[in-house]
């Protein structure tokens, strides 16, 4: 029992303070936070809304988070969620790459670059962006497409400069 009696008999009964922690409110708060994070996490992936094409290719394993280049239906280019002009794309990627190389150990491969393009955008615009990236010296460039079952986006065709990488 939580509160025992201190003395015997009917007179002078006093209850000791309860020394147990009530964890029910703590569990309630944690469950609410868990639900909030479960709902909010899928919304924090990529902020540029695109209608990706579908593919049967299987996803690849990633050690590092890739850099995502998105081309929206209007043809605007985004690095992650920041809009850039085509002329600024390679210098920004070089700055990101240099910052990453300073913080990593020697011998690690360069970061993969994913190009996402809306289904309705011109294929030429996507190839213009990819060609610009490849001309800038980046070799690990891949296209993203949507999985048929609604799974996470996967690279469809990795390219290394003018040759294809398998």
How does this model look, in words?
The protein is of the alpha/beta class. It has a domain at 67-164: Nucleotidyltransferase, domain 5 (2-Layer Sandwich), CATH 3.30.420.270. It is built from 3 helices and 8 strands; from the N terminus they run αβββαβαββββ. It has helices at 24-40, 86-102, 123-135; strands spanning 67-71, 77-79, 82-84, 113-117, 141-145, 154-155, 159-160, 163-164. Strands 3-2-1-4-5-6 form a 6-stranded mixed sheet. It has a two-stranded antiparallel sheet with strand order 7-8. The radius of gyration is 27 Å and the shape is elongated. The relative contact order is 0.15.
Q: How large, in whole angstroms, is the Cα Rg?
A: 27 Å
What is the CATH architecture annotation of one domain? 2-Layer Sandwich
What can be said about the biggest beta sheet?
Answer: 6 strands, mixed
Roughly what fraction of the amino acids lie in strands? 15-25%
| Strand segment count | 8
Order of strands across the biggest sheet? 3-2-1-4-5-6
CATH topology of one domain: Nucleotidyltransferase, domain 5
Structural class: alpha/beta
The proportion of residues forming helix, as a percent range, comes to: 25-40%
State the helix count. Answer: 3
Could you state the order of secondary-structure elements as H and E?
A: HEEEHEHEEEE
CATH first level of one domain: Alpha Beta
Poorly predicted segments: 157-166
> What do the pLDDT scores average to?
75
Gross morphology: elongated
Distance between the termini: 69 Å
């Amino acid at each position: 029992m939580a509160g025992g009696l201190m003395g015997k008999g009917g007179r002078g009964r006093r209850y000791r303070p309860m020394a147990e922690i009530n964890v029910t409110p703590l569990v309630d708060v944690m469950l609410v936070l868990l639900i909030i994070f479960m709902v909010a996490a899928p919304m924090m992936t990529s902020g540029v809304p695109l209608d990706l094409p579908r593919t049967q290719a299987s996803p690849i394993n990633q050690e590092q988070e890739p850099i995502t280049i998105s081309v929206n239906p209007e043809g605007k280019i985004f690095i992650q969620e920041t809009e850039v002009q085509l002329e600024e794309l390679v210098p920004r990627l070089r700055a990101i790459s240099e910052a990453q190389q300073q913080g990593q150990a020697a011998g690690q491969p360069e970061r993969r670059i994913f190009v996402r393009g809306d289904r309705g955008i011109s294929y030429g615009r996507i190839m213009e962006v990819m060609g610009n990236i490849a001309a800038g010296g980046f070799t690990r460039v891949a296209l993203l497409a949507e999985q048929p079952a609604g799974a996470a986006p996967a690279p469809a065709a990795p390219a290394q400069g003018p040759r294809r990488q398998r």
